[in-house]
Structures are given as C-alpha cells and as structure tokens.
Amino acid sequence: MRSKSLRVRHHIAEQKQAKEEGSVN
After folding, report:
1. What DSSP state is assigned to residue 1?
2. What one-character-per-residue DSSP string does 4-25 give?
3. Cα 11 to Cα 15: distance, rounded to the nearest angstrom
4. What is the pLDDT of residue 22?
5. Per the record, where are the segments of Basic and acidic residues compositional bias (predicted)?
6. Per-residue pLDDT tens digits for 1-25
7. What Å distances lie between residue 17 and 6, 9, 13, 14, CA to CA?
8. What is residue 16's predicted lDDT score, i.e. its pLDDT?
9. pTM
C-alpha cells in the first residue's frame, strides 16, 4: 500500500515536470 502511493506520487511528479517543460517550449 505504501509503495503504491509512492508510485503514484512519482507519476504525478513526472507529469508536472513534463507540463513545465512543455510550457517552456
């Protein structure tokens, strides 16, 4: 259960980073 939440957190972070990169371009 704990690892699952961590995985979701990582996925959200990746999406956030991708969004920031997209906005920069």
Report:
1. -
2. HHHHHHHHHHHHHHHHHHHHH-
3. 6
4. 81
5. 11-25
6. 678 898 999 899 999 998 888 876 6
7. 17, 12, 6, 5
8. 92
9. 0.49
Query: Measured between alpha carbons, how far is 24 from 14 in angstroms, rounded to an integer?
Result: 15
| Alpha carbon of residue 19 to chain centroid | 9
Q: Find all residues with CB under 8 Å of 11, minimum gap 6, and list them.
A: none
Q: CB under 8 Å to 20, separation ≥6 — which residues?
A: none
What's the token pair of residue 2? 């704990």
Taking only Cα atoms into account, the Rg of the chain, rounded to an integer number of angstroms, comes to 11
Tell me, what's the pLDDT at 13? Answer: 92
The two tokens of residue 22 are 């997209």
Sign, CA torsion 8/14/17/18:
negative
